[in-house]
Amino acid sequence: MLRLWSLWMLLLALVSSTMLVAAQAASAGTYTVFECSPTDSAGGWQPVNTFPSGLIVGNLCGGPATGPNEPQGPIDEGSLFAEDSTNTTADIPNGTEAGWSFTAPTGTSIAGFTYWRSLHAYDQQSLVPGLWTGEGTTLESCQSPPEGTHECNSLNNQGAKTFANLDASSLFFGVRCNLVDGGEYCVPAAPGERHAQADLYSASVTLSEASSPTVSSVSGAGWSGGYLSGEVPLTVSLSDYSGIAGVEVRSSLGTALASAPQSCDYYDAVPCPNLSQTIVTLNTAAASDGIQTFILQVKDAAGNITTMTSQPVTVDNHGPGAPTGLTATLDGAQVMLSWQDPASLPVPLAEGYVQLCQAACGVPLAVAGSGPARIATPPAGAYTVRLYLTDAAGKSSPVVSGPLTVPPAAGKGEEKLHALIDSHGRLYVTGPVPKGVTVVRVCWHSKRGKHALGSRCVTLHVRHGRIAVTFHPSARARRGHIAVTVSKGHSLIARLMATKVCST
Question: What is the pLDDT of residue 23?
Fold first, then answer.
């Protein structure tokens, strides 16, 4: 939070260079990092001192970003500074230097530089404060004149110095001993005096990066195809010279599915993190149902972008629409069901389920996913027929319903127990039992000729005068004739032969 505030204050202070920095930040391939005041961070600058017996470097960052106004002379407070010592008699060798060095990270170069600074030199032509590139170019320096006042002042006056169109590997700010007019060394100053002083109060370095992020791996259900719904994780490994600033995923139909901006610190030369096995969650509920691809977009700190596209996937958050035109008509011992399948299915239909309801609904019977279909005629009575469809991804349609009336058979007015086997081999035993019966035992036995193929029994508590139980006979048992018995204690209530539900 402190760094965000500091960065904001620094941006407010960069009055004379705001247009330049904003233009560079908006251009693909560059990013800007900050150093020194108003924070106490040296950022990417590293101290250099090749002659500590006579030269000094230090960090006093933490003042105003624009630095102090210096009408009375140079001030170190609030700066990264370099200078010669005021209390040494050591001769300063030629080629020695003290100051601060900024090196562009691997894969980048320095394209621009803006800073508030103060340069001061007095009575020593060979000891020079200034700013140089790693390639040896002098961007600015302050050298004492050989005669006259013997003093050079480029003091901070609240104005920034800006250098554009650079292509440098590094920068050095400080003081250097470069002998002029002969001699073997830079002469030290008299006690209490100073020959050279360089102060950097705040700086912004614009770095150029030409390469795009590297996508090492992308994995997860949302990338390899199939049916998707809800939240789906992607696992990504991404790297870049300036780090990964953000990850986005969009559908090829234009919907944003994920946005994962990263925490970047623009006081570091590599401001953003690299990601290893990081999970990005896709919200497929935001996408339209149907076949599409997902587009991964990775952005680095410099604004360079890498995109990748997934295998085709099918989003199915809502399942099939409701079937229409449901009718149920009697056809002898069977009920003919007819309907129109929903249009624009994102996923193929798998199967349908039918329930016959009176005071309560019976166990759903599986039928074919597309009509028409047939089920066994239930006992006489008025029913509501409920139908819903499921698709290959397991999503269900809304339920539709319609009426069905089964008249009593001639000479018979009583409803009976039924034993039905659906297309999946499930055995349903449903229907009424005599009044006053509270507990029954339901058993099935399968035989083929004299060979027993299987059996099973359960004890049920009767509710509302009816029973409903589901068995799962084995495939072997279903090859025989299945007889069902319903009994109370040792008294047989009903004996039934199971019949199969037909679907077309």
Answer: 27
